[in-house]
Design a protein that fits this description.
It comes from Reticulibacter mediterranei. This is Assimilatory nitrate reductase catalytic subunit. One of its GO terms (biological process) is respiratory electron transport chain. It is built from 24 helices and 28 strands. By secondary structure, the protein is of the alpha/beta class. The strands form seven sheets. It has a seven-stranded mixed β-sheet, sandwiched between helices. A six-stranded mixed β-sheet has the order 24-26-25-28-23-27. Strands 10-9-8-12-13 form a five-stranded parallel β-sheet, sandwiched between helices. β14 (353-354) and β15 form a beta hairpin. The longest helix has 19 residues, at 84-102. The structure holds iron/sulfur cluster (SF4).
């Protein structure tokens, strides 16, 4: 060994770039993170994808925010370095003036889901206890709030019912709107293992994704029409006598209404609505319906929809009709996207939720948490605006100030002319982040936070497994872990006694107690147990409880133990093609980037592979319009137009366009998307809107 080489230590932790949360060891030398090696953890078994391999480069990245900054000269003046005291004193004095003049709810918190459970918990508590505002929500609203609602309504518990290691136990995977190979690459090893053992794979997706290219059957559905296919499959399964009558009788409620609802969905009718040939729907129904064990995996392809909750419920109806939910390797699996997308919605930073998955508007649940926090229940605010509604309250002037934590609204929200107006209206707009995002460019105060490897805590991965994140290095410059920033703000607001934490472990132990008795009960999950068991699945109600990898093996989460089934009528997307907009535009992710790209666009290798967006267009459509591969074209929707490179590919429906959404400014796909939302959970319809593609010199 080279004697001059610095001594390296290995810090075991997890990748933060998707909900899989692969185990990794960070190499640390001289107080800096200098590299990575995979870790043999149960769900990644020593593998990392391209994002995981370079994630560590964020820690010492030259673009890191190192000092607090403010626009001392007001809006329009440059951001200048200031001390923490000056920044925090200014924020609190402004908030106090605003709340005195306009009321408590004129200040809001818009938080993120890529942070630890401890940070997510403290954001919800800070909003309600320190600020007294009801307006707190998080960017998981944009991710999979529709799946969360569907699972809560059907099963009584919002969590994937089974671990990834169950996937090889299935005989048939039905993947609906989930691009596993690009968005969750390491999860593919479980899919391959199922395939090696003979499992069939059916993919429903408008694009022939890398997963679809390996499938037995690809159903190229028109974006926004999945319910037609799912209902027709269920109708066919009934006709073939493949429903599990005994399971439906003993373990569910509502089957008769579902059976009646799907009756009109003949194969031909479904073909008419969805564009999928009737023969393929029939083949899919038989392949899925005849499998002894079958698993439906679904993600944003059906969840980013004005009927996203119903899309997920239609999947659940199929799985329940086949008696699959609760079986090892069977049922449904929502595939959470964000690093801590699952944990972020369990701990009380969502507008309608309190820790332990309690509902803020249910009297006994709010009383329980108010008592736990030591405040009169009358002081605990009621449900506030969802993230997508909050931005309109900002644009309309009802919300005067917002603290945005690790979220990049200028890239991630639809209709970003409204977002821009909202951000410009706020005074002050406070941003906590570790890179200067497109959103932070509008901020009056920017506070430098920590990245995932600069603090410790827990996250909950897409399986419901609570895992431990360990600290490998200090944040650079004067940057601080976000929970310390929030604690210091609370002190200045005169509420420091409610935030007495000296460490992330203090927060975790409070959260364990707060969640006790709730749906997501972490009480028995100590950090020691997480290390011993390589993660612990909630619910884990006592210290000697081993955790619960499989849910619903005997009962669902309702007092009578039965799952709920809901009839799901067909509903078209909010905006259908027609007139001057003949295409359906859909958006999504690519393997090299994460969410708004604020992190991955700075990592050289990842950015070199996908430095700019493109629009995918089928060769038939391209030929008709005279568009050639790599030509710059214009994509227009009723809201906006953008110029982007054309990628002519046969892997997309001829009536559909696709643009990846990881880019900002003039390259932001969400300038084009529709801001229509699902009526109950307010998730936007990112996955379909009407569009036109044309040559730049078109008249
Ligand atoms: Fe990270 Fe997800 Fe890739 Fe695993 S699959 S290395 S968690 S981005």
């Amino acid at each position: 060994r080279d004697a001059t080489r610095l001594a390296e230590t290995l810090v075991p932790t997890h990748c933060a770039f998707c909900g899989v949360q692969c185990g990794m060891n960070l190499k640390v030398a001289d107080g800096k993170v200098i590299g990575v090696e995979p870790r043999n953890f149960p769900h990644n078994r020593g593998s990392l994808c391209p994002k995981g391999v370079v994630a560590y480069q964020q820690a010492d990245h030259p673009d890191r925010l190192r000092y607090p900054m403010m626009r001392r000269g007001g809006k329009g003046s440059p951001l200048e370095r200031v001390t923490w005291d000056e920044a925090l004193d200014y924020i609190v004095s402004r908030w106090q003036r605003i709340q005195a003049e306009y009321g408590k709810h004129a200040v809001s918190i818009y938080s993120g889901s890529s942070m630890t459970n401890e940070k997510c918990y403290i954001m919800g508590k800070f909003a309600r206890v320190a600020l007294g505002t009801r307006h707190v929500d998080y960017n998981g609203r944009l991710c999979m709030s529709s799946a969360a609602m569907a699972y809560a309504r059907a099963f009584g518990v919002d969590r994937a019912p089974l671990p990834m290691t169950d996937i090889p136990l299935t005989d048939c995977i039905l993947a609906v709107g989930v691009n596993v190979a690009e968005c969750f690459p390491i999860m593919m090893q479980w899919v391959w293992q199922a395939r090696d053992k003979g499992a069939n794979l059916i993919v429903i997706d408008p694009r022939e994704t890398p997963l679809a290219r390996t499938a037995d059957l690809w159903l190229p559905v028109k974006p926004g029409t999945d319910i037609a296919v799912l209902n027709a499959m269920l109708r066919q399964i009934i006709a073939d006598g493949l429903v599990d009558e005994e399971y439906l009788k003993t373990r569910t409620q509502g089957w008769e209404a579902v059976r009646d609802e799907v009756e009109p969905f003949t194969l031909e009718y479904a073909e008419h609505l969805s564009g999928v040939p009737a023969k393929r729907i029939l083949a899919a129904a038989r392949l899925y319906g005849r499998a002894a064990t079958s698993l439906i995996m679904h993600a944003r392809g059906i969840e980013h929809s004005t009927h996203g909750v119903d899309n997920c419920l239609a999947c659940i109806n199929l799985a329940l009709a086949r008696g699959q939910v609760g079986k090892p390797g069977g049922g449904t699996m929502m595939v959470t996207g964000q690093g801590n997308g699952q944990g972020g919605r369990e701990v009380g930073q969502k507008a309608n939720q309190l820790p332990g998955y309690r509902h803020i508007d249910v009297p006994e649940e709010r009383e329980h948490i108010a008592r736990f926090w030591g405040i009169p229940v009358e002081e605990l605010p009621w449900e506030g605006a969802a993230a997508t509604e909050m931005v309109h309250l900002m644009a309309d002037g009802e919300i005067k100030s917002c603290m945005i934590v690790c979220s990049n609204l200028m890239v991630s929200l639809p209709d970003n002319q409204v977002v821009q107006k909202a951000l410009q209206n706020l005074d002050p707009l406070v941003v906590i982040d570790f890179f200067q995002s497109e959103t932070a460019n509008f901020a009056d105060v920017v506070l430098p936070g920590s990245v995932w490897c600069e603090d410790e805590g827990t996250t909950t991965n897409l399986e419901g497994r609570v895992i431990k994140i360990n600290k490998a290095a200090d944040p650079p410059g004067e940057a601080q872990p976000d929970w310390i920033i929030v604690r210091e703000l609370a002190k200045r607001l005169g509420r420091g006694q409610f935030f007495p934490y000296q460490s992330a472990l203090d927060i975790w132990n409070e959260l364990r107690e707060a969640s006790k008795g709730g749906v997501s009960d972490y009480y028995g999950i100590t950090w020691e147990k997480i290390d011993e068991q390589e993660g612990v699945f909630w619910p884990c109600p006592t210290l000697d409880h081993p955790g619960t990898p499989r849910l619903f093996t005997e009962r669902f989460g309702f007092p009578d133990g039965r799952a709920r089934m809901f009839p799901i009528p067909y509903q078209p997307p909010a905006e259908e093609p027609g007139g001057m907009y003949p295409f359906r535009l859909t958006t999504g992710r690519v393997v090299y980037h994460y969410l708004s790209g604020n992190q991955t666009r700075r990592l050289g290798f990842l950015n070199s592979q996908a430095p700019e967006p493109w629009v995918e267009i089928h060769p038939q459509a391209a030929a008709r319009l005279g568009i050639v591969n790599e030509e710059i074209v214009r994509v227009r929707t009723p809201r906006f137009s953008m110029e982007v490179k054309a990628l002519v590919v046969p892997t997309i429906r001829p009536d559909t366009l696709f643009i990846p959404y990881h880019y900002g400014g003039k390259q932001a796909a969400n300038q084009l998307t529709n801001s229509a939302v699902e009526p109950t959970v307010k998730i936007p319809e990112y996955k379909v809107c009407a569009a036109l593609v044309e040559k730049l010199n078109a008249p």
